[in-house]
């Protein structure tokens, strides 16, 4: 049996009074929303995808035997490139050049330092392959044979890839394609093409024996006689250009890259005339059956993939000022 709960009149009045008081109480003030950071304040930490770093040409490479790329795009649209390249484990690579082929390899007049396109390229290749470059210098005449005999690991001097040379040394994949042009003095007006040069028997061409420029002069401009007295043989390429400037010869054949370099160094003294005479590919040279050839080829491939070769072209053919 439930017992009924009854309130006395006094208790009833007290309860009603409490209800009135609670209804008239002032409500708590609302709390302000959290203040947003000022527009100039950087967030504490932004996800990598929101603020991508400038693309790097290469990440650390694990040891492997073939190049590979990952070209998936991040949410910001930046291509993240990672290469799997051979790891040479800090191996010392003895590299040789001639320091005589501006802007590929030369000694800067203002600083006295050896530099150039090929220096930068091989230093970058060894960075990607985890090797250390030991730079050496030799003459053009001795370079191919000394590399063939294993005195140096890799050689470079704007060396054109030819079947004849491949009988003696191994070439890398091409790292540059160039064309030969006629470099002349800035005031030259007697000829403007190979035919007009060949027609004037007084005109002389400067060349290095055994170079592609020498053979182009012999077989594509003159009469095919390698002993033609109109060909003045000089010790190195720099000497041929100097002979041109001083008037000892009237024309030197240069590739487009080197021509731009020498004209940049002597803008009031030299110019290019005529169309391209020949197209040639440059390659690094190795001792036959060298185990460095394939790693270098893999790294050369990556230089093209991430446009590092274009960076070098811009730096040495357009931005470098040899007259500074």
Kindly identify the CATH topology of the domain at 91-175 and 283-319: D-Maltodextrin-Binding Protein, domain 2
| N-C termini distance | 113 Å
CATH architecture of the domain at 91-175 and 283-319: 3-Layer(aba) Sandwich
Strand content: 15-25%
Shape: globular
- Category by helix and strand content: alpha/beta
Number of strands: 12
Mean pLDDT value: 80
What's the main sheet like?
5 strands, mixed
Rg of Cα set: 36 Å
The CATH homologous superfamily of the domain at 91-175 and 283-319:
Periplasmic binding protein-like II
User: Which strand order does the major sheet show?
Assistant: 4-1-5-12-6
User: Which parts are unreliable, with pLDDT below 50 for 5 consecutive residues or more?
Assistant: 1-79
CATH class of the domain at 91-175 and 283-319, anyone?
A: Alpha Beta
Please write the string of helix (H) and strand (E) elements: HEEEHEHEEEHEHEHEHEEHH
Specify the number of helices: 9
Task: Walk me through what this model shows.
30% of the residues are buried. This protein starts with 8 loop residues before the first helix and ends in a 5-residue tail after the last helix. Strands 4-1-5-12-6 form a 5-stranded mixed beta sheet, with helices on both faces. A 5-stranded mixed beta sheet has the order 9-8-10-7-11, with helices on both faces. Strands 2-3 form a two-stranded antiparallel sheet. Among the domains are: 91-175 and 283-319, 3-Layer(aba) Sandwich (D-Maltodextrin-Binding Protein, domain 2), CATH 3.40.190; 178-281, D-Maltodextrin-Binding Protein, domain 2 (3-Layer(aba) Sandwich), CATH 3.40.190. Helix 5 (212-221) links the parallel strand 8 (205-207) and strand 9 (231-233). The chain has 9 helices and 12 strands. The protein is of the alpha/beta class and 324 residues long.
């Amino acid at each position: 049996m439930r017992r009924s709960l009854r309130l006395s009149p006094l208790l009833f009045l007290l309860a009603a009074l409490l209800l009135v008081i609670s209804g008239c109480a002032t409500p708590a003030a609302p709390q302000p929303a959290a203040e947003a950071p000022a527009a100039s304040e950087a967030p504490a930490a932004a996800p990598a995808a929101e603020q991508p770093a400038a693309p790097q040409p290469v990440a650390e490479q694990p040891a492997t035997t073939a190049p590979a790329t990952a070209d998936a795009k991040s949410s910001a649209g930046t291509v993240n490139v990672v290469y799997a390249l051979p790891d040479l484990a800090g191996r010392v690579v003895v590299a040789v050049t001639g320091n005589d082929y501006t802007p590929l390899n030369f000694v800067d007049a203002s600083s006295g330092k050896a530099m150039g396109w090929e220096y930068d390229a091989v230093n970058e290749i060894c960075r990607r392959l985890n090797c250390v470059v030991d730079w050496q210098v030799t003459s053009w005449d001795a370079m191919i044979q000394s590399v063939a005999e294993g005195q140096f690991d890799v050689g470079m001097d704007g060396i054109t890839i030819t079947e004849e040379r491949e009988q003696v040394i191994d070439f890398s994949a091409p790292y540059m394609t160039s064309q030969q042009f006629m470099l002349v003095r800035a005031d030259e007006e007697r000829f403007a093409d190979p035919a007009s040069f060949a027609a004037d028997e007084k005109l002389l061409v400067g060349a290095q024996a055994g170079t592609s420029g020498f053979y182009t002069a012999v077989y594509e401009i003159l009469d095919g006689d390698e002993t033609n007295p109109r060909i003045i043989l000089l010790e190195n390429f720099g000497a041929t250009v100097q002979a041109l400037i001083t008037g000892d010869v009237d024309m030197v054949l240069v590739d487009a890259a080197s021509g731009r370099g020498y004209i940049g160094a002597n803008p009031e003294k030299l110019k290019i005339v005529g169309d391209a005479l020949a197209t040639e590919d440059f390659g690094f040279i190795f001792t036959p059956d060298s185990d460095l050839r394939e790693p270098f080829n893999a790294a050369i491939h990556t230089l093209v993939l991430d446009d590092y070769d274009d960076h070098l072209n811009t730096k040495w053919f357009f931005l470098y000022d040899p007259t500074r």
